């Protein structure tokens, strides 16, 4: 009577895409892009195993591209039905999807110019108009407000605490009395700005993320480490360059820097946010009080600016960004991308790395092979824009800023269920993480299964 078809994020982290079928209705939960290795990215070009026009609804857990980035492609191929999300997810998707489309258009344009594509001509995965049409299909409603999105299928959003708008999605299937719960990406407890992940009382089937299923975040005090790194660079008269993701991580950094400044633990200096997307996303974080935790809510109500220091400057134009090269320390530059794989931060690294007064501070996981990882591993030169740049600046990292729950926090969230789900399906993880969480879930006495890519699983009925 009900089934799940795992079209992505099965056996790997990205490409979130799950087809829920019930009583002849078809709901696609998430519509993300695969990211990472080439063999995964090539899956983005494969059509869905059903015509997009046959889908009755699409539901998004949150706005990150590995959960939403395939939506313009599906719309291009014929889907024109509703796309349900929280208001925060819709607002962030309106930034992310056109930006993603622009990158695909630029990639195709460059491939045609250089002639390295086997396709003649190379085409983008989708275009900016496709992305704009996709955003236009989005319909929103808030947390804890059940909505019958199709006859016999009711959807309720609960807070996931990962990024603005992120949601645990609960589907109640009337005719079979089944409840299917998708955790989406779970956030962390007692993190600033957003409320904690909300518990869900019951499920017949639970689909849970496993990104950190075999890892525990090191118990550090990130604000203390951030304070020490900043003061060290300032004492040398240097500039702190922080590669950071534009959505979520940048806002958390601004929150902590503002707090350190308010407590007079760091001096008042220029803080530059050099990322057009981060500049656009930060006001969106402020515009959704329904997402704010108690401290954030109190600051906003008092008229404070919780996501800005006294001298925060949001840099939008390329010329403004270039002028930062002439800015002497002490100062802080926050710029994307978070792993120093591309974006404006590369220009700042190219200019600041040769100077030992400066500090490059990484505040997130650096994957193997990334430029950020190579710097953390102690390489004395890195290639940027075709040139070898000497690494004389101090390279530091601060753990504790991850927006993903680790396995202990995932298990804490699962403690909210009053009884075990009849089946627990583990997704959004690399094989080691999936196996690590599977063992921990089974140790609780729950059934745990890791579905494979493109596998279809029948959902167990209520006894």
Walk me through the structure.
- Helix 4 (87-114) packs antiparallel against helix 8.
- The protein has helices at 38-41, 65-68, 71-76, 87-114, 128-136, 222-235, 249-262, 276-286, 294-301, 318-323, 345-352, 371-376, 407-414, 431-443; strands at 2-8, 17-22, 25-29, 57-59, 83-85, 138-140, 147-150, 153-159, 167-173, 178-182, 205-209, 239-243, 270-274, 312-315, 331-335, 359-362, 381-384, 387-390, 394-397, 423-427, 448-449, 456-458.
- The chain contains 14 helices and 22 strands.
- It has a 7-stranded mixed β-sheet with strand order 6-5-4-3-2-1-22.
- The mean pLDDT is 94.
- The radius of gyration is 22 Å and the shape is globular.
- The protein starts with a strand and ends in a 5-residue tail after the last strand.
- Helices cover 30% and strands 22% of the residues.
- The chain has 463 residues and is of the alpha/beta class.
- The longest helix has 28 residues, at 87-114.
How is the topology of this model organized?
Blueprint lengths: L1 E7 L8 E6 L2 E5 L8 H4 L15 E3 L5 H4 L2 H6 L6 E3 L1 H28 L13 H9 L1 E3 L6 E4 L2 E7 L7 E7 L4 E5 L22 E5 L12 H14 L3 E5 L5 H14 L7 E5 L1 H11 L7 H8 L10 E4 L2 H6 L7 E5 L9 H8 L6 E4 L8 H6 L4 E4 L2 E4 L3 E4 L9 H8 L8 E5 L3 H13 L4 E2 L6 E3 L5
Parallel strand pairs: 3-4, 4-5, 5-6, 10-11, 11-20, 12-15, 12-16, 13-14, 13-15, 16-19, 20-21
Antiparallel strand pairs: 1-2, 1-22, 2-3, 7-8, 8-9, 9-10, 17-18
Helix pairs in contact: 4-5, 4-8
């Amino acid at each position: 009577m009900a089934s799940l078809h795992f079209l992505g994020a099965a056996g790997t982290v990205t490409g979130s895409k799950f087809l829920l079928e019930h009583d002849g209705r078809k709901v696609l939960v998430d519509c993300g892009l695969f990211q990472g290795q080439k063999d995964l990215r090539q899956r983005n070009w494969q059509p869905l195993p059903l015509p997009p026009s046959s889908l009755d609804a699409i539901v998004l857990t949150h706005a990150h591209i590995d959960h939403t980035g395939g939506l313009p492609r599906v719309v291009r191929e014929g889907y024109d039905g509703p796309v349900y999300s929280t208001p925060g997810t819709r607002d962030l998707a309106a930034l992310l999807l056109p930006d993603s489309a622009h990158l695909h258009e630029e990639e195709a344009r460059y491939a045609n110019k250089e002639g390295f594509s086997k396709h003649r001509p190379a085409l983008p995965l989708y275009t900016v108009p496709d992305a704009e049409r996709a955003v236009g299909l989005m319909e929103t409603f808030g947390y804890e407000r059940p909505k019958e999105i199709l006859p016999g299928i009711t959807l309720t959003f609960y807070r996931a605490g990962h990024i603005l708008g992120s949601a645990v999605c609960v589907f109640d299937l009337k005719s079979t009395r089944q409840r299917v719960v998708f955790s989406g990406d779970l956030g962390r407890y007692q993190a600033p700005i957003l409320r904690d992940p909300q518990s869900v009382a019951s499920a017949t089937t639970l689909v849970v993320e496993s990104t950190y299923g075999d890892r525990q975040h090191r118990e550090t005090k990130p604000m203390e480490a951030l304070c020490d790194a900043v003061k060290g660079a300032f004492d040398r008269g240097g500039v702190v360059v922080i590669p950071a993701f534009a959505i979520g991580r940048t806002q958390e950094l601004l929150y902590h820097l503002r707090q350190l400044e308010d407590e007079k633990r760091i001096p008042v200096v220029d803080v530059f946010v050099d990322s057009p997307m981060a500049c656009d996303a930060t006001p969106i974080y402020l515009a959704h009080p329904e997402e704010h935790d108690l401290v954030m809510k109190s600051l906003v109500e008092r008229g404070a600016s919780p996501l800005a220091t006294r001298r925060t400057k949001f840099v939008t134009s390329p010329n403004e960004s270039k002028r930062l090269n002439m800015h002497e320390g002490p100062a802080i530059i926050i710029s994307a991308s978070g792993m120093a794989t591309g974006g404006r931060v590369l220009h700042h690294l190219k200019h600041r790395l040769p100077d030992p007064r400066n500090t490059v501070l990484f505040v997130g996981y650096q994957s193997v092979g990334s430029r950020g990882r190579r710097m953390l591993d102690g390489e004395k030169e890195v290639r940027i824009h075709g040139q070898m740049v000497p690494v004389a600046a101090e390279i530091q990292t601060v753990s504790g800023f991850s927006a993903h729950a680790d396995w202990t926090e995932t298990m804490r969230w699962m403690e909210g269920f009053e009884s075990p789900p009849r089946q627990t399906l583990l997704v959004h993880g690399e094989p080691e993480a999936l196996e690590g969480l599977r063992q921990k879930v089974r140790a609780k006495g729950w059934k745990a299964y890791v579905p494979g890519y493109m596998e279809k699983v029948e959902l167990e009925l209520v006894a």
